[in-house]
From TrEMBL:
<dbReference type="GO" id="GO:0042026">
    <property type="term" value="P:protein refolding"/>
</dbReference>
<comment type="similarity">
    <text>Belongs to the FKBP-type PPIase family.</text>
</comment>
<keyword id="KW-0963">Cytoplasm</keyword>
<protein>
    <recommendedName>
        <fullName>Peptidyl-prolyl cis-trans isomerase</fullName>
        <ecNumber>5.2.1.8</ecNumber>
    </recommendedName>
</protein>
<keyword id="KW-0143">Chaperone</keyword>
<keyword id="KW-0413">Isomerase</keyword>
<dbReference type="Pfam" id="PF00254">
    <property type="entry name" value="FKBP_C"/>
</dbReference>
<comment type="function">
    <text>Also involved in hydrogenase metallocenter assembly, probably by participating in the nickel insertion step. This function in hydrogenase biosynthesis requires chaperone activity and the presence of the metal-binding domain, but not PPIase activity.</text>
</comment>
<dbReference type="InterPro" id="IPR046357">
    <property type="entry name" value="PPIase_dom_sf"/>
</dbReference>
<dbReference type="InterPro" id="IPR001179">
    <property type="entry name" value="PPIase_FKBP_dom"/>
</dbReference>
<feature type="domain" description="PPIase FKBP-type">
    <location>
        <begin position="6"/>
        <end position="79"/>
    </location>
</feature>
<keyword id="KW-0697">Rotamase</keyword>
<dbReference type="GO" id="GO:0003755">
    <property type="term" value="F:peptidyl-prolyl cis-trans isomerase activity"/>
</dbReference>
<dbReference type="GO" id="GO:0005737">
    <property type="term" value="C:cytoplasm"/>
</dbReference>
Amino acid sequence: MQIANDTVVQFNYTLKDEQGEVMDTNEGKAPLAYLHGHNNMLEGLEKALDGKSEGDSFSVTLAPADAYGERDESLIQRISVRHLQGAKRWEPGMVAMVHTENGPRQVVVVKVGRFMADVDLNHLLAGRTLTFDLDVVSVRAATEEELEHGHAHGEGGHQH
């Protein structure tokens, strides 16, 4: 079966940066699962996986626009240090959680003072060209329940 809208895809990946250094992988773990065509995956990855079949292995390099977006310097904001969660003492470069009106969000501490901190709200991988080595483990038709819920269920997907 080929990957198309309304199929559940399980795959393994290795993510590499611009220099080819491995940044993340799920090798040796359960494959990731997603419902194709339902905005559950990076747009560039979903396009690259479209039409592939179980057993296919390939690499795809995504420009920032097809991955996590370009960096937006206007997303560096000053907030109260008390809103940073995840550590007692903060230093530039540390990742913190901040609760926003849209839910929790990871931020990177850029500068920290006694009461205020400058934080970067860009995704950690924004502005980066990324290469994904992908192995398609399985492809199957989505169940009615998965289509109703808008995501894959079971191993590698959402557990109910």
